[in-house]
Design brief:
single chain, about 325 residues, alpha/beta, seven-stranded parallel β-sheet, three-stranded mixed β-sheet, 11 helices, 12 strands, binds nicotinamide-adenine-dinucleotide
């Protein structure tokens, strides 16, 4: 990879992937882009090239790819699960329309493409435990439908046109740099902020909702390792199951209490996000990723919890403003 384009670069993943790519390949070799104008707190645009790019416009994608002679794209621009459920038409247009146009540009210029799929690409009839690499996929959310269709479309471009497409089914991601963008697993980030600020969090998922999760440093490393892997070994190229840890809100709260013993968790269930979570696996089998390109997670729940609190504590302080009822 000589010149890399990252779409949706100001989001939760992009704001950490871009600095990691720039460190590895050089700042000038990584072009960040987003449809959102950068704010003062966005570090990505100040650290290297940045372009305003709306992925539903093929001419805009084509112009950037030509100008920078891009040969690999990390295509992160998308609407996440909860936002997509509120705006299904826009979700289809961005998640599928954007991907289709990006693949067309990649086909014309011979670019490699990374596409993050998700555990959302599974569905209620998928086996919930040790979900196999190849299994039933009948998602019933618009997000899941676009993720599964994206996997298939990337497979098609690889087979039909020889485009080097690669992808991972990412679990819910936990990170401290940029807030999550409206997904079903956002609780696992919000809980840390609220724990430090108020020693209290009201969770929108039931206490026993078990989901696959991953700490952002593992996810960033996985994306970069996959794109550098020997292509001849990548049988499951666009849709590798990926796992690191699997936990419920109750278990995460227990781990936070190791550091903040007075932390309290209560619940106000959001039926939309609960239904989405209930349709996703509890834990996936990632043996294909381990075998085909040597995937190994480095972060577990205790290590991630300690690291999240350490990074957020200086920003969020130790104030505990009174809550109603205190
Ligand atoms: N964060 C997670 O937990 C998670 C888990 C699984 C998969 N994923 C996938 O990873 C990708 C990135 O996720 P994220 O968490 O960084 O999302 P995010 O919502 O934080 O960021 C997405 C970015 O895309 C941009 N965007 C939206 N529409 C666009 C358009 N038309 N053109 C260009 N940019 C546009 C947004 O402005 C935003 O900055 C998505 O495909 C998502 O489905 C994320």
């Amino acid at each position: 990879m000589r010149r890399i384009l990252v779409t949706g670069a100001l989001g939760q993943i992009g704001s950490e992937l871009v600095p990691a790519l720039r460190q590895r390949y050089g700042a000038e070799s990584v072009v960040a882009s987003d449809v959102r104008m950068p704010q003062a707190e966005d570090r990505v645009p100040a650290e290297g090239p940045f372009e305003y790019l709306d992925c539903v416009h093929i001419r805009e994608i084509d112009a950037v790819v030509r100008r920078y002679e891009v040969d690999a794209v990390y295509h992160l621009a998308a609407l996440l699960s909860a936002v997509a459920e509120e705006r299904p038409r826009v979700a289809w247009e961005v998640n599928m329309g954007g991907l289709y146009r990006l693949l067309e540009v990649a086909r014309q210029h011979g670019c490699a493409v990374f596409l993050p799929s998700s555990i959302g690409a599974f569905g209620p009839s998928t086996p919930k435990r040790a979900t196999p690499q190849v299994t039933i996929q009948r998602p019933d959310t618009i997000y899941g439908i676009t993720k599964l269709s994206g996997e298939l479309l990337c497979d098609y471009y690889a087979k039909r046109f020889g485009i080097d497409t690669r992808g991972l089914r990412l679990p819910g991601l936990v990170s401290h740099r940029t807030p999550p963008g409206g997904g079903t697993t956002d609780y696992a980030v919000e809980i840390f902020h609220q724990a430090l600020r108020y020693r209290h969090y009201t969770c929108f998922l039931r206490p026993d909702t078990c989901l696959d999760m991953m700490y952002m440093p593992d996810a960033i490393r996985a994306m970069m390792e996959l794109m550098e892997a020997d292509p001849s070994r990548l049988e499951s190229r666009n849709a590798f199951n990926l796992a690191a840890m699997s936990f419920t809100p109750a278990r995460l709260a227990e781990e936070i209490r190791v550091h903040l013993p007075d932390f309290e968790l209560d619940f106000a269930i959001d039926p939309v996000r609960q239904a989405i979570a209930d349709s996703w696996p509890d834990s996936v089998d990632d043996s294909a990723a381990r075998e085909q390109w040597g995937w190994r997670p480095e972060w577990d729940l205790p290590a991630m919890t300690a690291d999240m609190l350490e990074h957020l504590r200086p920003r969020l302080g130790r104030e505990r403003p009174a809550r109603a009822g205190d």
